[in-house]
Amino acid sequence: MADEERLTRRIFVKGTAAALTASLIVKPSFGASNAGSLEEKGPGDGEQVPRRPLGKTGVQISALGVGGYHLGSIKNEKESNELVARALDAGIDFFDCAWEYHDGISEERLGAALKGRRDKAFLMTKVCTHGRSKDVAMKQLEESLRRLQTDHLDLWQIHEVVYYNDPDLIFAPNGAAEALLAAKQQGKVRFIGFTGHKNPAIHLKMLSHDFPFDAVQMPLNALDATFKSFEQQVLPEAIKRGIAVLGMKSLGGSGEIASHGALTAQDGLRYAMSLPVATTVSGMDSLGVLEQNLQVARGFKPLTTEAMQSLRESARMFAADGRYELFKTTTKYDGKVGREQHHYPPTEKLPV
């Protein structure tokens, strides 16, 4: 999922006053000759976050979603409760999470924050079998439901399909794909999908099984358009199949796109939200970050084709080798449980 780390949070929260109120244009130092075609900053507090169709499900969700990983990074539960409440009040109803985030703390935080308002939220979490059996998946589902204090999920997705043999393991007899169908038949989940961030070819292999996925989550940002592009290769295929696309990593996973000057943080989010996606999931671990995102998301209107191309061109020099999309080129963003199941060393044992 889209998971902007400490550096990105400093960009949003500790930036200059000008950065916080800027009119969301490409940095002039990178020659955005069409900068004037980009829209001005978002409207005021009176406007809600727009809603979009979730593929062909007939359901609509908010165009901006809250990333669950960062809820587990917040200092205490009171703050995470406040963030979720503020997001709901602003019209954000899509909440992302995963069974393995912070060893279950993220799901527990989200469940507590939604208590009494569960009916206002579109709740998604992910199963983290990483190649293990249907039985493991169903056990994780029960644990997720308990942590989230709910009797059903709106969307249950297979997490982190990033290894080249993952599709074979998922669709093997008694694999995770069978768990998705069973959970849906039992009424414990409404919709099903999968996520991943490594290579478009893996996503395409998943889709080639013609499985009845309702949603698919993938990294979508202005640099992705140039390098191992999910936007160019997977997004059109998902749309053709009527599968809802959930965008993530709008700033490169740890904010590299903004911190290295490819785009401003605001432009990065604007680009991602302007793609034909159901929602863009953003990691937010403070009210300050949420408010900065809301400056973009309230009353959001997609950028023009020309403005999108201008952003891609401004970022192209940073994009060609994947240096700021490390989730594609390294194992840095591959989760602990997946690494263990695929016999990779933990991150702390990787060479510098």
Characterise the protein shown here.
The protein has 352 residues and is of the alpha/beta class. The protein has one domain: NADP-dependent oxidoreductase domain (TIM Barrel), CATH 3.20.20.100. 38% of the residues lie in helices and 13% in strands. It has 16 helices and 10 strands. Helix 4 packs across helix 5. The chain starts with 5 loop residues before the first helix and ends in an 11-residue tail after the last helix.
Features:
352 residues, alpha/beta, TIM Barrel, 8-stranded parallel barrel, two-stranded antiparallel ribbon, 16 helices, globular
Strand content: 5-15%
- What ranges have pLDDT less than 50 throughout 5 or more consecutive residues? 1-43
> What does the average pLDDT come to?
87
Distance between the termini: 25 Å
Number of strands: 10
The value of Rg in angstroms is 19 Å
- Quaternary state of the chains: single chain
Specify the structural class.
alpha/beta
Structure annotation, total helices: 16
CATH class annotation: Alpha Beta
Number of domains: 1
Q: Do you know the CATH topology?
A: TIM Barrel
Largest sheet geometry:
8 strands, parallel, barrel
Q: Give the SSE string.
A: HHEEEHEHEHEHHEHEHHEHHEHHHH
CATH architecture: Alpha-Beta Barrel
- CATH H level, superfamily name: NADP-dependent oxidoreductase domain
Sum up the overall morphology in one term.
Answer: globular
> Percent range for helical residues?
25-40%
